[in-house]
Amino acid sequence: NEVLRLDGVSKTYAKDGPAPVEVLRGVELTVARGEVVALVAPSGAGKSTLLHIAGLLDSPDSGRVLLQGRDMAGLSDRARTEARRRELGFVYQFHHLLPEFTAAENIILPQLANAVPQREAAARAADLLGRVGLAPRAGHRPAELSGGEQQRVAFCRALANRPALLLADEPTGNLDPETSDRVFDMLMTLVRETGLSALIATHNHDLAARMDRVIRLNEVVA
Ligand code: ADP
Ligand code: ADP
Q1: Chain segment 156-175, per-residue pLDDT in tens
Q2: Which atom in ligand 1 lies closest to the alpha carbon of residue 44?
Q3: Nearest CA to ligand 1 atom 6
Q4: How is the chain classified by DSSP, letter by letter?
Q5: Would you tell me which of 38, 122, 166, 188 could form a disulfide with 198, CB atoms 3.0–4.6 Å apart?
Q6: How remote is the CA of residue 44 from the centroid of ligand 1, in Å?
Q7: What pTM value is reported for the model?
Q8: Is residue 13 within 6 Å of ligand 1 at its C-beta?
Q9: How many angstroms separate the alpha carbon of residue 201 from the centre of ligand 2?
């Protein structure tokens, strides 16, 4: 029961130019349902490229991407966007919250885009904010929140549409070590409580060790 499978995925940038950059070569990777996998890679090894491919933002040159058993090759742009919206949740190093909306609104809006009724969307936002200890902050705008609080809201937003898979790129990389530790624990608790599967890129070996499995990505040696 796999949520994600990358099967022989290869990617080279500027393939037809004078200086091609081979980034991924025959990558095999799976995330099972309910599994939390750490992606550890030295800078430049292609971590972002891999997350972009898994997140359907970019296509591999060869190899297959299967999301919940479904081959993503040959999907129309529209079907691809739909799959991103319904099946995937994203967290980045920076929160990317909408500054003019409150914490709760930032979690409600993507649900409305997925046709979740307003009342249900508000209930989910309240439930998720409660789980990360931010119930009292529901009505605050991002600028009124600390870095750790902003990132916790971003986690809630990523989970609001109940995705099958969470893709995270250095989700606590922008926080000081102590806050990072605490906020990461909350993310793990949230993921476990909702039975979510996740692929989380991190440079932090202590954080990686707290996940179910670690996948190391090495630089392609030409
Ligand atoms: P990481 O996230 O592990 O640091 P990236 O996936 O961002 O690695 O990049 C891997 C390599 O591919 C780097 O050498 C980077 O310079 C190169 N690269 C990334 N994007 C492009 C692009 N659009 N065109 C050319 N080279 C790129
Ligand atoms: P219950 O059916 O008892 O609510 P669930 O295990 O289905 O138990 O969910 C536990 C809680 O987590 C519920 O509040 C539910 O709304 C929430 N939840 C379940 N799945 C997700 C998900 N993928 N993302 C965010 N919240 C979720």
Answers
A1: 999 999 999 999 999 999 99
A2: 4
A3: 46
A4: -EEEEEEEEEEEETTTSSS-EEEEEEEEEEEETT-EEEEE--TTSSHHHHHHHHTTSS--SEEEEEETTEE-TT--HHHHHHHHHHHEEEE-SS----TTS-HHHHHHHHHHHTT--HHHHHHHHHHHHHHTT-GGGTT--GGGS-HHHHHHHHHHHHHTT--SEEEEESTTTTS-HHHHHHHHHHHHHHHHHHT-EEEEE-S-HHHHHTSSEEEE-PPP--
A5: 166
A6: 6
A7: 0.88
A8: yes
A9: 24
